[in-house]
Amino acid sequence: MKTSGRILAAALLLAASTSMAFGAPSGGKGGGGGKGKRTTSACQTTQVAPTISGAPSTGTIEGIAYSFTPSASDANCDALTFAIDGKPAWATFDSRSGRLAGTPPAGTAGLYPYIVISVSDGYRAALLPAFSISVTPNSVPSISGTPGTRVESGRSYSFTPSASDRDGQRLSFSISNKPSWATFSTSTGQLSGTPASSNVGTTSNVAISVSDGLSVATLAPFSIEVLAVNNAPTISGTPPTSARVGSGYSFRPTASDPDGQALTFSIANPPAWASFNDATGQLAGTPPVGSSGTYSNIVISVSDGQLKASLPAFSVTVQEPVTGTATLSWQPPTSRTDGSTLTNLAGYRIHYGTSPGSYTQRITIGNAGITSAVIEGLAPGTWYFAATAYDTAGVESDYSNVGSKTIN
Description:
five-stranded mixed β-sheet; Immunoglobulin-like; mainly beta; 36 strands; 42% strand
């Protein structure tokens, strides 16, 4: 602020306090045609100085917004304008409202004295007492905490530093060398994530910083090592617990490994009639005749080379095959195809199988007087039967009509 400006302000204050009048311009206030006047019944006609009041804050901090607006009025209803002397370079001033505002940046700490805000109605002026603004240097925020430096693959990791600012400024966080498997919050500073087995290794020089917009504080750089951890494989499935002689048996478990490792299978106490695939875990076979009984404590396991998982022990009971019978009857032939009488009938042959016209089995009945037969030991399914007759010379007839029976 200039020295001449301070003398002028004092003179104006003296004039206002002793009601000393300055010369009015032509067409003066006594006539009601004053500059910018609002002529209403509430306006005082005798010219008086405007008034101004307010208690400006005398301190702030670098990076913290400062604002002060005085209160002013004019009894004559004249338009008012504001002026300032000694305005800090970091602040702005509004001549219409008298508002002084701004945010002192870094490096502007110090005392800004002899700030004077005045208001004028075009004829007289009033001033606030001179005041000073002391700008305090910005305090560097603080950050602390001890981050974890190791985590096992497949396990969650989380670290949130503690941070504060003595000036109460809003804080934001940043990070450098963030692990690829982690996420970072700029509002809380939290570093978190779950590394996979593919992330095994060390990420070095991880640095978390906090800023109040002017100053930055940083934790000491640290490293995070992801350790390889072997997880046991899993195996599941419900093996059949029964089989039949002559019928196929098969069971294949489901297995997986969370680490994606190659798996091999093994078995304890397998049935002698079954084979086992150590690549797939499949147990399969057909119990032969004479193998009926119970095969106990069968255990199928899977391994990733280090850890093993097993199904609960189970048993397989082999039962004798379910068989049925078919009773056949026929009328003996009495003539040959040429119409002559059949006099030397010797017997019959019963042909049967599980496909019509394709007979895989045969029974010979060497007695022409027998006209029925019972076929036993038929496995479940549909069986087809046809009969032929033959004479003492070995001449055999064509197939008879076809009969069938379903064995359940």
